[in-house]
Amino acid sequence: MNLLLILPILLPMVMAMISVLTGLDRARSGMLAVFGALLHLCASGFLLATVVDHQVLVLWMGNWPAPAGICLVADYLSAAMVLITSVIYLAVMVYSGKEITPHQRRSGYYPLMQFLTAAICGAFLTGDLFNLYVWFELILMASFGIMIMENPGSRLTSAVKYVTMNLLSTVFLIMAIGLIYGLTGTLNMADLHEKVAQVDNTALVTGAALLLMMAFAIKSALFPLFFWLPATYHTLPVPVAAFFAGMLTKVGVYALIRLFTLVFVTDVAVTHTLLMVMAVLTMVSGVAAAASQMDIRRILSFHIISQVGYMVLGLAVFTPLALAGTLVYLIHHIIVKANLFLVSGLIQRATGSFDLKQTGGLYQTHGLLSLGFFIPAFSLAGFPPLSGFWAKLLIIYACLEAGHYFLGATAAVVGLMTVFSMIKIWTEAFWKKKALPVDSPVEPLVDIPFQLMGPVLCLCLLTVLIGVFMEPVLKFALVAGEQLMSPHQYVLAVKGGG
Amino acid sequence: MQSIILKTATRLMVGLMLVFAVYLLLRGHHEPGGGFVAALVSGTAFALFAITEGPAQLRRAIRVRPSVIAMTGLAVAAAAGFPALFAGMPYLTGIWWKIGEISLGTPLIFDVGVFLAVLGAIVSLLLALEEN
Questions:
Q1: Residues of chain A whose C-beta is under 8 A from some C-beta in B?
Q2: Pseudo-torsion of CA A199, A204, A210, A216, nearest 10°?
Q3: Domain assignment of residue A275, given as a range
Q4: How many domains does the structure of chain A reveal?
């Protein structure tokens, strides 16, 4: 049973090894990747089902005793995040089959993506602060490799920005880890939960907490540390951009949630107030910056930032309901955002451009694609009964319930401004008549292959289903929220299991 | 680089360094050493070789593609975790066998895997840098 915890990390790694060692051709390596992603999805599904039965699962790697060893822990939040990772991973792998060029494949696209997935799952599952750092490093290395895999020249500037910011974050992270280890003598997060409360030097604990907050604020693109994100994402190949947009910042958000519910809850007045300020500024600045953009992928990139603000807002409000809202928001957002990036690739295929001014007329020519854009876009904007409506509603409701009326109002206004951006894409790319540049030949309107349309439609279906069957999702999220607010179950599972 | 001193010294050094790397690898786990540092030492040996003889010679000397070395290493390391599962213990638990005076165990296999993985990574970086 406990083997389940290692599978989401081990499976993609094994797939990467197989695909490198056997040196498969294009079609077969794509098939293998899809097969690997399917296995991964099954493993994550079983993991989630087991967690629902047992609440918290713990596996001590190598059977080393409690404080020295490294453990993997899956509670509701971790298991849900792993499952959603494998859903996006599968969708992206299917989509990649038609989109990835032979050159990109030869530069190691599939193995790198598989390592990235393994590292993301590792970060979600680890119960050890230093191990978390290691997974973040692996994520950084794998994602850098993917960024520069083809014609590094043109992408190098943005990739260097990305790596520089992330290395800065790593420095903060490692300093904070050093401080915490010096103060408490442990890095196991469940152990830290008890030891941090006993440290006399509370100022230093708060200092370390703030260092960690900065580190993960860079990773999750919070205000004012987000500028690496819009500089990077729009230069990537479509499936890569979708996977990065869905997952990378969310690993940072996950780390914030984990640390600021389990470990640093001694000085909520400072830490969570700061989180709240950052969350609001992130929401507002992201959505405002998106309004001025005309490139589809840039608009979507800026919206990632504003959406991350919502999630962190839920964490900052710090009630079970708010945390449940954050989890629902995470799930909703990852699906929708990855999907929108996939759709942006299809829009480019159908019209020849990512620039909204060059596009148009898709509603007339590509009905299914219009549906594929409409659902995630208006879910992102928060239209009922799609998933985004419930996610926003939960966060706003939690804000109001906790008495933060201003925050609730801001969240609602930012939602309205998101509608503006989505309507902009809708009218420009779908409704307006196609503006043909005089000199360029007319693009033949090829049918979009099913391999590209399928993942998009499946993710759309998922968005609708989450929206319609909100009750079980919400129930699950509320349990997760309770688990996060009172982590004694988590602590007991880890400490008792040693 | 054309330097008779470097060339002669390299011939001596490379062999010594590779032997030392094996010593470090086998010494690991119970005493300071292990796969990672052994790979760094042998990586230095290969770097020296590449500087004096050129990257093409290094490619010919190691025969296998470095990425294949790295992935084989990872596969070996990952496989070292499985015997523990059959013994009903968590993944990666060390299992030891006594053969006469020597005790051999899965941690050694794991270390060999780490050695190959790190070595493969170093050599592929080295070749990429030297060839550009």
A1: 2-3, 6, 10, 13-14, 16-17, 20-21, 59-63, 108, 111
A2: -70
A3: 2-495
A4: 1
